[in-house]
Amino acid sequence: xxxxxxxxxxxxxxxxxxxxxxxxxxxxxxxxxxxxxxxxxxxxxxxxxxxxxxxxxxxxxxxxxxxxxxxxxxxxxxxxxxxx
Length: 84
Ligand SMILES: [Zn+2]
Prior knowledge:
Elements: H1 4-8, H2 19-31, E1 34-37, E2 40-43, H3 53-64, H4 69-82
Antiparallel strand pairs: 1-2
Helix pairs in contact: 2-3, 2-4
The chain binds zinc ion.
Residues 32, 43, 45-46, 48, 52, 54-55 line the site of zinc ion (ZN).
């Protein structure tokens, strides 16, 4: 079974990661969080198997920006807390 991910491949990273990209990336990772489904974790936004393309893109952008796994988690936690 070909998933849409296999067909489209990875989203391209911006050539230079700006502060604005970081904001988008944190939002992408937060909005595209995992949700538990009977067959495993899925994206709560687009129902693709987790991590979906946008979630992966967001993490790659943040890593490209030089953030550690730990810093990424804390940014995401902050963003999650800010959501209504
Ligand atoms: Zn998603």
